[in-house]
Specification:
FAD/NAD(P)-binding domain, alpha/beta, single chain, 8 helices, five-stranded parallel β-sheet
Length: 334
């Protein structure tokens, strides 16, 4: 039996280990589009602040993958999934066959049109490479604009402020996926961010970005609103990274639609983590159960089911909600 896993984040690694726990003789391969070894994405802001180095954010889950006979292929971007042929075609022309496939590709940031231009001062904040670029290019003083709704923009704003920068946070709208913060919790979080000295432009978007005498000028959608800054850190929401599944025949919503067993509409293909969209029977809606803890739980269960366990996934709010938006977040931004 050959298991192929796309994505070497928390869901992919947890799935691989779960499969190995049930099948000692099978072949397991993880293919990831990232070059660095697996790392803890929630600690990227600590890297920006200089609290840890790259070695300090290594994912301990990944340390014994080779010892368990789990292969990892780095720099492999999936281009197409061929369910009829049980194979995945990659951007470099290589192919990998599978008996059972897990898609655990996570999400990628959705960049608004004014910030898509190539410019050394427009800095996406998503990966380890992005984070190292921010730490290298953004001085520890001067004004930095952070753009984006939700969790990632909150922690990016707080990290840059603690680093010594004056921070202006454009908070355009609530995220399309996951939980938007609201009510008393939203007020507490925004107050905590403001108390660190971050200026919040609530409900404002970026209309244009221009060169301005060695800096860049941000034009707000609010009439007359202009801000000069050294850099724009784009910390927008991450949407499921599933473009390569076009034409595959898998049922797709915002993410990959899965059942209670994390199985897709193709019986030998599963999905887990930030790219998987589960149907909630209580609310009669489908949603992405995003977050690090949720990804590990889903990955572990998907791996067990790929190896024949037949377990249902039980969604719990505590898997991620308070980890992201509750006391733990307040502790990080104070």
């Amino acid at each position: 039996m050959r298991y192929l896993i796309l994505g070497c984040g928390p869901a992919g690694i947890a799935a691989a280990k779960a499969i190995r726990g049930k099948d000692k003789k099978c072949e397991i391969v993880i293919a990831t589009d990232e070059q660095p070894p697996p790392y803890l994405r929630p600690l990227l802001t600590d890297l920006i602040m200089g609290r840890v180095d790259v070695a300090g954010i290594a994912d301990p889950q990944a340390k014994d993958l080779a010892d368990q006979g789990i292969g990892v292929r780095n720099g492999k971007r999936a281009l197409k999934v061929d369910p009829a042929g049980n194979r995945v075609i990659f951007a470099d022309g290589a192919e990998e066959a599978y008996d059972v496939l897990l898609v655990a590709t996570g999400g990628k940031p959705e960049i608004p049109a004014p910030l898509r231009k190539e410019h050394p001062a427009i800095l996406p904040f998503d990966s380890l490479e992005d984070t190292l670029r921010i730490a290298d290019r953004v001085p520890r003083s001067g004004t930095v604009v952070v753009y984006g709704p939700g969790f990632l923009a909150i922690v990016a704003s707080s990290a840059l402020r603690k680093r010594g920068n004056d921070v202006v946070w454009f908070q355009p709208d609530t995220p399309r996926t996951g939980y938007p913060i609201s009510g008393e919790l939203e007020a507490n979080i925004l107050d905590s961010v403001r108390n660190t000295g971050v200026r919040i432009l609530d409900g404002q978007d970026i209309a244009a970005v221009r060169e301005a005498g060695g800096e860049i000028e941000i034009e707000s959608t609010e009439k007359g609103g202009k801000i000069r800054c050294l850099a724009v850190v784009v910390a927008t929401e991450r949407l499921p990274a599933i473009g390569f599944l076009s034409g595959s025949g898998l049922k797709i919503g915002t993410g990959i639609i899965v059942d209670d067993y994390l199985r897709t509409s193709v019986p030998n293909i599963y999905a887990a983590g930030d790219c998987a969209e589960l149907f909630d029977k209580e609310t009669r809606t489908a949603r992405i159960n995003f977050g690090w803890r949720s990804a590990i739980k889903q990955g572990r269960l998907a791996g067990e089911n790929m190896a024949g366990a037949g377990k249902r996934y039980v969604r719990e709010e505590s898997d991620y909600l308070w980890v992201l938006f509750g006391p733990a977040l307040l502790d990080r931004i104070r």
